[in-house]
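STRUCTURE:
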């Protein structure tokens, strides 16, 4: 792999790039989302405040480029970007699945963020199929979709808690499995137990 900084300097000096397109071998797939202090349910208006909880995800194929820590303020004076969240996988599908897991594990409180919107995109058929364009938001996104997804996730968590309290271990597994399949979304509780 050529040194890209060296290549940039050589190009700036008027030299040609030392490799050709066919020399580049594609290995795997990466996806990046930008996590902003914005409210996607309110026309992506910027949000400000203190990061009461800031716990970025980790794990295989996950990278977070950020400049914030728990307790820091998100000010009104600058760009509202909190971080760039990047996932890598052997193919697009694995990169998407890792991104969904990373979004679920990314814990931020104190400000509204675009994480729920990013998850919406990762799970949308147009995105997963690769058949979308720059009009994706206008064509597919409605703010009320995020509220419905949040309600669904909350219902799944509540069902898991009820199952944990009131039923035996074998009954609990069946109850949670039925609840999850009915809602077509896997709860965070269930995901954690399946890892």
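SEQUENCE:
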């Amino acid at each position: 792999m050529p040194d890209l900084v060296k290549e940039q300097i050589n190009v700036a000096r008027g030299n040609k790039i030392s490799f050709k397109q066919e020399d580049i071998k594609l290995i795997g797939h990466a996806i990046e989302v930008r996590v902003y202090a914005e409210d996607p349910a309110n026309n992506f208006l910027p949000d400000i405040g203190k990061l009461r909880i800031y716990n970025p995800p980790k794990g295989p194929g996950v990278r977070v480029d950020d400049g914030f820590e728990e307790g820091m303020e998100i000010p009104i004076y600058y760009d509202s970007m909190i971080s760039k969240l990047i996932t890598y996988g052997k193919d697009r599908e694995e990169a998407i699945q890792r991104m969904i897991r990373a979004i679920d594990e990314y814990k931020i409180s104190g400000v509204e963020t675009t994480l729920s919107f990013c998850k919406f995109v990762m799970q949308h058929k147009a995105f997963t199929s690769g058949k979308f364009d720059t009009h994706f938001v206008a064509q597919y996104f409605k703010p009320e979709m995020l509220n419905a997804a949040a309600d669904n996730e909350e219902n799944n968590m509540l069902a898991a808690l009820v199952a944990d309290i009131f039923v035996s271990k074998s009954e609990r597994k069946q109850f949670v499995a039925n609840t999850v399949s009915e809602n077509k979304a896997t709860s965070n509780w269930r995901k954690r137990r399946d890892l």
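REMARK: The longest helix spans residues 143-166.
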